[in-house]
Specification:
- The chain is an alpha/beta fold.
- The protein has one domain: 3-Layer(aba) Sandwich (Carbamate kinase).
- It contains ten helices and eleven strands.
- It has helices at 11-16, 28-31, 41-56, 73-78, 83-107, 129-137, 155-165, 199-205, 212-220, 235-240, and strands at 21-26, 60-65, 112-116, 125-126, 141-145, 170-175, 180-181, 193-194, 196-198, 225-229, 247-250.
- The strands form two sheets. Strands 4-3-5-2-1-6-10-11-9 form a nine-stranded mixed sheet, with helices on both faces. It has a two-stranded antiparallel sheet with strand order 7-8.
- The two termini are 14 Å apart.
Length: 251
C-alpha cells in the first residue's frame, strides 16, 4: 500500500482489504445507461450499492464523477459556446450527477456528502482537503464535484489531482470496458487486454486511457491507476479485496 495514513485505524480491515482509501472516477456517460443522456435510475442504484458495500467494509471512498451525460464543455464549443463558459456548464453538470449519487447512496443506507470545487452552499460544502479526509475517516463517502474548478481541465484531471491530494492508495477508473486493450475492443475483436502496464508503455503506445494531464499527474506522483468495468455487479468490492480485475497501471 502506497500511503501510511492512519493505518492503526485499519488493523482489522487491512487484513482483508488491499486498499483502505480510494478515489473512484466515474464517467457521466455511464450514468445514462443505455440512453445517450440523462441519468438511469437502475445504473445509479447499482453504483450506489457497490459504493456503499465497500464503504461499510471500512474502505474510505472518495468519488469524482463526470458530467458528459448532461453537458460536455468541448462539444459545447462546437455549438458556439465560449470554451470557458462551456467548461463552467460542464462543471455544473458534474454537480447534478454528484447530488444524484449522494441521494442514491443515502437511499441504500450509506453516508455521503458532496463537496464542490467552487462555492455553492447549500448545494454542497466547499472542497477542502482536510475536511474531506476527516469525513473519510468517519466513514462518509465524499463526492467531489465541479472538476478542478477551472476551465480547460477534465474530470479525469480532477480525479488524479484529488487522489493525490487526499493520499489515496489507488485511483480507480470505472468504465464500461474491463481494462486497457491494445485497441478499442468494441471495434477490434482481436484487441488484447493488458493485465498490467506501465505509464511509459501507455504513452509510447498512445493508448487512450485518460487525458495526458491526468496521466502525467498520476505518473509523477506515483499514483497507481486501475481501469475496470464498474457495470459488473460486485467488481468494486472484489477489486478492493485484492482480486485482479481490470488493468493496473504503475511506474
Amino acid at each position: 500500500m502506497s500511503s501510511s495514513h492512519n493505518s492503526y485505524l485499519y488493523r482489522e480491515e487491512t487484513i482483508i482489504m488491499k486498499y483502505s482509501r480510494i478515489l473512484l472516477k466515474l464517467s457521466g456517460e455511464s450514468l445514462s445507461g443505455k440512453g445517450s443522456q440523462g441519468i438511469s435510475d437502475s445504473v445509479l442504484e447499482e453504483y450506489a450499492k457497490q459504493v456503499t458495500d465497500v464503504a461499510k467494509k471500512g474502505c474510505q471512498t472518495a468519488i469524482v464523477i463526470g458530467g458528459g451525460n448532461i453537458f460536455r464543455g468541448l462539444s459545447g464549443t462546437e455549438s458556439g459556446f465560449d470554451r470557458v463558459k462551456g467548461d463552467q456548464m460542464g462543471m455544473l453538470a458534474t454537480v447534478i450527477n454528484s447530488l444524484a449519487l449522494e441521494s442514491a447512496i443515502k437511499r441504500v443506507g450509506g453516508k455521503a456528502s458532496v463537496f464542490t470545487s467552487i462555492r455553492m452552499e447549500p448545494v454542497g460544502e466547499l472542497y477542502n482537503r482536510d475536511k474531506v479526509v476527516e469525513a473519510l475517516l468517519n466513514g462518509t463517502v465524499c463526492i467531489i464535484a465541479g472538476g478542478t474548478g477551472n476551465p480547460f481541465f477534465t474530470t479525469d484531471t480532477a480525479a488524479a489531482l484529488r487522489a493525490v491530494e487526499i493520499g489515496a492508495d489507488v485511483l480507480l477508473k470505472g468504465t464500461r470496458v474491463n481494462g486497457i486493450y491494445t485497441a478499442d475492443p468494441e471495434k477490434d475483436p482481436k484487441a488484447e487486454k493488458f493485465e498490467k502496464i506501465s505509464f511509459e508503455d501507455v504513452l509510447t503506445r498512445r493508448l487512450k486511457v485518460m487525458d495526458s494531464t491526468a496521466f502525467t499527474m498520476c505518473r509523477e506522483n506515483n499514483m497507481p491507476l486501475i481501469v475496470f468495468d464498474m457495470n459488473k455487479s460486485g467488481n468494486l468490492k472484489n477489486l478492493i479485496d485484492g482480486e485482479k480485475i481490470g488493468t493496473l497501471v504503475t511506474n
